């Protein structure tokens, strides 16, 4: 006769450790999505740093003389000038970042949902709790993942540095972590963390509020039912709003992370994220804050249409 302990031991792993299984499956899905869409992320980073006016103060004329390229020309230029596989330069720290960010965000969100906020009396989870919890979870996850994001951005720009005749900064991923740590200490690994967590909060807020609002409207005011078509249309709108809200902070983050630094690890171009914002607007115009918007939106769209966002509420109370 089997005991409860035997039954538990023989049950599937997903039932015995549901959170661990969910995290593992999410990590695998995120890795596949990262590999498939990473060229868009690389293109986005190159566009965000293209034409950086602050470089003129250092006497770097390479950026000013280079003609402006859009998304397609930038991607084709990388293939022609650096090689096809360079479209995945920096993918290893990007995968590290996905694992840390997704894990930190998921654990934080579930803790907030079950312990801090709790469900309402009718067992539903209100939209405002999802938004606040999603923003807080995104901030925590992004803060934890900042070192991997920093290395990813800098490695994505190595091919450009080589074309400009500048020395390469790193021999590989682990050398990048070690060099940044040696030059700037622990604090150096969190360069750019302020605009990074701002972007995470804005993206999660835009996604959650827009997705739920659009889905609610479509189900109540159109012949559409709660199915994959409704999910796709809601994701399309939520990705657009999230990109509009998050792209300026993403541009500032990329520029601060990629800026040259002195021997003490201090930035030579920008004193803070606010200084970077002011210099970008004054030197390049307001629309410079939306450089890389199209590949950013396309990448966000592909991720959110193919994956079920864990923070999107299934039912909302407006």
UniProtKB/TrEMBL annotation:
<keyword id="KW-0999">Mitochondrion inner membrane</keyword>
<keyword id="KW-0496">Mitochondrion</keyword>
<keyword id="KW-0812">Transmembrane</keyword>
<feature type="repeat" description="Solcar">
    <location>
        <begin position="21"/>
        <end position="115"/>
    </location>
</feature>
<feature type="repeat" description="Solcar">
    <location>
        <begin position="125"/>
        <end position="217"/>
    </location>
</feature>
<feature type="repeat" description="Solcar">
    <location>
        <begin position="226"/>
        <end position="317"/>
    </location>
</feature>
<keyword id="KW-0677">Repeat</keyword>
<keyword id="KW-0472">Membrane</keyword>
<dbReference type="InterPro" id="IPR023395">
    <property type="entry name" value="MCP_dom_sf"/>
</dbReference>
<dbReference type="Pfam" id="PF00153">
    <property type="entry name" value="Mito_carr"/>
</dbReference>
<comment type="function">
    <text>Facilitates proton transport across the inner mitochondrial membrane and may dissipate excessive proton gradient associated with oxidative and metabolic stress at neuronal synapses. Regulates glutamate-induced proton conductance in astrocytes, shifting the energy metabolism toward aerobic glycolysis and lactate transfer to neurons for ATP synthesis. Can transport chloride ions with lower efficiency. The transport mechanism remains to be elucidated.</text>
</comment>
<dbReference type="GO" id="GO:0005743">
    <property type="term" value="C:mitochondrial inner membrane"/>
</dbReference>
<keyword id="KW-1133">Transmembrane helix</keyword>
<dbReference type="InterPro" id="IPR050391">
    <property type="entry name" value="Mito_Metabolite_Transporter"/>
</dbReference>
<protein>
    <recommendedName>
        <fullName>Mitochondrial uncoupling protein 4</fullName>
    </recommendedName>
</protein>
<keyword id="KW-0813">Transport</keyword>
<comment type="similarity">
    <text>Belongs to the mitochondrial carrier (TC 2.A.29) family.</text>
</comment>
<comment type="subunit">
    <text>Homotetramer.</text>
</comment>
<dbReference type="InterPro" id="IPR018108">
    <property type="entry name" value="MCP_transmembrane"/>
</dbReference>
């Amino acid at each position: 006769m089997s005991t409860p302990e035997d039954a538990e031991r023989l049950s599937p792993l997903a039932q015995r450790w549901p959170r661990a299984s969910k995290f593992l499956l999410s990590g695998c899905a995120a890795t596949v999505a990262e590999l498939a869409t990473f060229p868009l992320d690389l293109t986005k980073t190159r566009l965000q740093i293209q034409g950086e006016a602050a470089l003129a103060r250092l006497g770097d004329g390479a950026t000013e003389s280079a003609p402006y390229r859009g998304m397609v020309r930038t991607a084709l230029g990388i293939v022609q000038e650096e090689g096809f596989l360079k479209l995945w330069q920096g993918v290893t720290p990007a995968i590290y970042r996905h694992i840390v960010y997704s894990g930190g965000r998921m654990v934080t969100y579930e803790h907030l949902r079950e312990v801090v906020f709790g469900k309402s009396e009718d067992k539903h989870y209100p939209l405002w709790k999802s938004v606040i919890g999603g923003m807080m979870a995104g901030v925590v996850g992004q803060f934890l993942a900042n070192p991997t994001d920093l290395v990813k951005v800098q490695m994505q720009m190595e091919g450009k540095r080589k074309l400009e005749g500048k020395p390469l900064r790193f021999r590989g991923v682990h050398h990048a972590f070690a060099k940044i740590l040696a030059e700037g200490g622990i604090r150096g690994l969190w360069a750019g963390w302020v605009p990074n967590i701002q972007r995470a909060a804005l993206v999660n807020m835009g996604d959650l509020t827009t997705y739920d609002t659009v889905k609610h409207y479509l189900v109540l005011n159109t012949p559409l039912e709660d199915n994959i078509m409704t999910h796709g249309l809601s994701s399309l709108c939520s990705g657009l709003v999230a990109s509009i809200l998050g792209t300026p902070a993403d541009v500032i983050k990329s520029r601060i992370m990629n800026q040259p630094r002195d021997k003490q690890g201090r930035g030579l171009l920008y004193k803070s994220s606010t200084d970077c914002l002011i210099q970008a607007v004054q030197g390049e115009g307001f629309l410079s804050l939306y450089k890389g918007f199209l590949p950013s939106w396309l990448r966000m769209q592909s991720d959110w249409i193919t994956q079920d966002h864990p923070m999107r509420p299934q039912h909302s109370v407006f």
